[in-house]
Amino acid sequence: MEEYIFFNNKTLPKGKAKILIQSPGFLFGDGVFETIKSYSGYICRIDLHLERLLNSLRTLKYVPEQPESFKSLIRESIRNLLKINNLSDREANIKIIVSRGTYGKKLDIASAGNSDLTISASPIGNKDMEYYGKGVNVISSAIKRTSDENFIYKHKLINYFENVYAKNEAASLNAQEAVFLTYNDFILEGATSNIFFVFNDIVVTPPLTQNILPGITRRAVIDLCKENNIKIIERMIRYEEIADSDEIFLTNSIFEILPVKKIDNFKIKGAPGNITKKLMFFYKETLV
């Protein structure tokens, strides 16, 4: 059955959607996106995703939208796509993309026209449950970042080559994820995830003052720790601290919480550990 998407106020077959070759999204990766997971029609944490999207649109100076009507349009379009794509009784990957309208003058965002809005909803394939039971392999990317002061990393940009390259580095070494480090070897985040460590029953994750994305699932895990009396600290983490960690796990909206069994040559004892398993359970409870 053909998949339908929403594109600029129209719901149409995916194969019939077209953008102009002059689109800044195509030419320059000038756009932002959100990825949301739905569970049998329940759109997980959509309010937080839409708030982050609107914050990016404001900060990055896209053509302003009326916030409430824009959010209502997205909500209604997602519900419609879940229905017509027969996704109301299964898990789905929802992607919202806002790309800047064509520049009136070269590389002049102030001259751009109305932004393009694209929404898709696709089925999520069967999970590899082995990863949840035994953990994934992670490598550190050859791409280095500065530690802080680059606000661009706070936004989900469709200019995604850095992440794509890092994921391919991981795949070439039979790993499932890559993490970015700073030039002075502080750990930042994964190519598609945020990262958490456990040291002596204390959960630790890099702070938002560093060049990382404010992940929605990251926020959920921090809240779950506080609600369940699990000590949580946000601080900078040095690469060599991997050797001292008892547990490591990754988070994102699609795979949720995923234990790590190895980073480069550092092996993690008994993935998933007790705290990781608790948080995986607590997270599932929030979806009921």
What does this structure look like?
The protein is α+β, with helices and mostly antiparallel strands and 288 residues long. The chain has two domains: 4-123, Aminotransferase class 4, branched-chain amino acid transferase, N-terminal domain (D-amino Acid Aminotransferase, Chain A, domain 1, 2-Layer Sandwich); 129-285, D-amino Acid Aminotransferase, subunit A, domain 2 (D-amino Acid Aminotransferase, Chain A, domain 2), CATH 3.20.10.10. The protein is 27% helix and 31% strand. It is built from seven helices and 16 strands. The strands form two sheets. Strands 7, 8, 9, 10, 11, 12, 13, 14, 15 and 16 form a ten-stranded mixed sheet that branches. The mean pLDDT is 95.
* Quaternary state of the chains: single chain
User: Proportion of β residues?
Assistant: 25-35%
Helix content: 25-40%
**Largest sheet, strands/sense/barrel:** 10 strands, mixed
- CATH class group of the largest domain: Alpha Beta
Task: Please describe the structure with a list of short key phrases separated by commas or semicolons.
288 residues; alpha+beta; D-amino Acid Aminotransferase, Chain A, domain 1; D-amino Acid Aminotransferase, Chain A, domain 2; 2 domains; 6-stranded antiparallel β-sheet; 16 strands; globular
